[in-house]
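Data availability (excerpt). The following record was deposited with the supplementary files.
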Amino acid sequence: MGRHLRVVQAGVVVTKLESIDRSSFEPPYSQVARGIRERITSGEYRAGDRLPSEAELCALYGVSRMTARRAVALLTRDGVVMTENGKGTFVRAPEIGAATFDLGSLRRLVDDEATTVKIGEARIVPSSPRVSAKLAVDPGSPVVAIKRIVRSSGEPVFYHSEYLVFDPRRPLVEAEYGVTALRDLLANAGTSGFKYGRLDLHASTLSNTEASCLGEEPGVPAWVVEHLFFDFENRPVSWGRFIGRADRLRFSATVGVPDVREGGGE
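Predicted structure:
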């Protein structure tokens, strides 16, 4: 991006810019979006400021309407700006309620070659009221119960309990005794046969059984990652929960627009 001059006309932020770099491998719409984002992080565009219109962006950057539209769409998708019909596009104010937390620490653990899974139990049991409600089966219906210990470099880090809908026509294969469904979901691999899954994170404490399996004391603060997987007919087929000491997982989120030049855009 070149040098620029900020001018405010009737409450609209108008910035005179040099043309985008046509020789760059970065798509023009991405360059336009990056330029606007940089001016937001520098404070040149503030929360509530109305940005140049689509036509003005075309003139400012020397791009087509489609390029300008894609740039605004990208910023809207990322929660940087918002568009109001008949009014224009505005810089969005930081919203705590819009913050999202990723599961990068869990994904790294699942993907780590040093992570191993030991089966503690695998048997068919009558479903409890809680399990039957999660899997949408009748109470007492047979389900497959699997208990696992997830270890990292030999150290137990998570106790995993899972319940699967029992289908006598489809025997379990060895791969299903691992954590393949969650691994595929986190990696977006889509090879587990599950259509989608829902994850729920909440705080808890270790029970006697969980603490014993993890080598901890009962009552130690813990994180629980609960998961519910659905098949391609949108039927629940597997419900379970990972539980581990609270310091085993770390979650972070960014509120507002970080300065990518300082590494805040990771």
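Summary of structural features: The longest strand covers residues 115-126.
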